[in-house]
Write a structure and sequence with these properties.
Layout: H1 5-11, H2 22-28, E1 31-36, H3 40-57, E2 60-65, H4 71-80, E3 87-91, H5 92-101, E4 104-105, H6 111-115, E5 126-138, H7 139-142, H8 150-153, E6 163-166, H9 172-180, H10 192-202, E7 206-210, H11 213-222, E8 227-231, H12 232-240, E9 245-262, H13 268-278, H14 281-287, E10 294-295, H15 306-309, H16 316-319, E11 323-324, H17 327-346
Parallel strand pairs: 1-2, 1-3, 6-7, 9-11
Antiparallel strand pairs: 3-9, 4-9, 5-8, 5-9, 5-10
Helix pairs in contact: 3-14, 5-17, 9-10, 11-12
Length: 347
């Protein structure tokens, strides 16, 4: 079956969409259809963005869940001129791929967007949230202050315990290099030979090569491993559920994700209005109640309770200690690096 905006909205439970064409809906109801990652994003973004935008403008924003890296789907939409989505939450890496192919519109400027630090936005992507890749560990086996750096994570003799690492060159290469003594300022371009030499030292001590965020939460919660790099929100889930887990923010890697606008879509100007709306700090503060990722607008922290701010990666207390993942580098090197990495894991 051909996927269209109407069928996708129908699958999301918008029964009225099944009764009218997209053109009629735009005239009568003014609808924006955007892809978000679902789960806590759906709840958080509804409270922070979708519902307030409807109240202020009369435009309904329908958030629909899409695949994790929707670059292929967006490319197909733009090429065919068949727009299931008007915009999408994209990672920095994914947006770089789409920009190079000419598949995104510029987001425009306004005062709220300009409040967002330059490293958390581009001409084609307005960052909404900061995602941290942190070193998480169990305090019952590793101690309350058991690990303070990536060097500790790779020190299996001095810091014994079961390890898990991500089965991907992304993030894992940076962690290995930082553990080997490369400074954050000199991290890119990545020295893959040095990274693999470092990984080889602990190869036999890696109990699990994980492939998904939910898997890391389970590994840590059940005690199947003691040490596991993961996304900060995945570690926070286990902490909130009462597991004895701690997060080390020192040298944590970070990236951001945010709204991109599909090139040539039917609602480009309206999407720009929505994107600017989402840049407001007080609105971004709202989604942090459901989603443990950091707002990109620093003014959001004025409206976030102190205990919640303490678990967010864009918190000024941690942010200066973190290392930004280089999306442009990975856009060029990602395919070959992952091919080499997978061969190494299997070898």
């Amino acid at each position: 079956m051909t996927i269209t905006r109407r069928t996708l909205l129908g699958s999301a439970g918008a029964a009225s969409v099944l009764l009218a064409s997209p053109a009629v809906l735009r005239a009568q109801d003014r609808v924006l259809t955007v892809r978000d990652p679902g789960g806590p994003y759906a709840d958080g973004f509804a409270k922070a963005f979708y519902e307030p935008f409807l109240k202020e403008t009369g435009v309904r924003v329908a958030g629909v869940q899409g695949e994790h890296a929707p670059t292929g789907m967006i490319s197909s939409m733009v090429d065919a001129g068949n727009y299931v989505w008007d915009g999408s939450i994209l990672s920095d890496n994914a947006h770089q791929v789409l920009v190079e192919k000419g598949y995104l519109e510029t987001i425009g400027e306004n005062s709220a967007i300009n409040e967002i630090p330059s490293q958390l936005r581009t001409d084609y992507l307005m960052g909404t949230d900061v995602v941290g890749v942190v070193l998480a560990y169990r305090t019952d086996t590793m101690g309350e202050n058991g690990l303070t750096s990536w060097a500790d994570a790779f020190d299996v003799e001095g810091k014994p315990g079961l390890r898990a690492l991500r089965r991907s060159a992304f993030d894992t290469m940076e962690q290995a290099l930082l553990a080997s003594g490369v400074s954050a300022d000199n991290l890119y371009p990545l020295d893959f030979d040095r990274a693999f030499d470092q990984l080889e030292k602990i190869r036999d001590d890696v109990a699990v090569w994980w492939t998904g965020g939910a898997q890391t939460s389970q590994l840590l919660a059940t005690g199947e491993v003691d040490v596991c790099p993961t996304w900060n929100a995945r570690a926070q889930v286990t902490i909130d559920d009462g597991a004895p887990i701690a997060i080390n923010w020192n040298e944590a890697l970070y990236t951001f994700e945010g709204w991109g606008i599909l090139k040539g879509g039917p609602n480009v100007d309206l999407m720009r209005e929505f994107v600017a709306f989402c840049a407001d700090g007080s609105r971004q503060a709202e989604f942090t109640q459901d989603l443990a990722y950091g707002p990109t607008n620093p003014s959001a922290y004025a409206d976030i309770p102190e205990d919640r701010a303490a678990v967010l990666p864009s918190n000024p207390e941690y942010f200066d200690k973190m290392v930004k993942s280089n999306a442009e580098f990975w856009g060029e090197a990602g395919d070959s690096a992952n091919e080499r990495f997978n061969e190494w894991v299997l070898g």
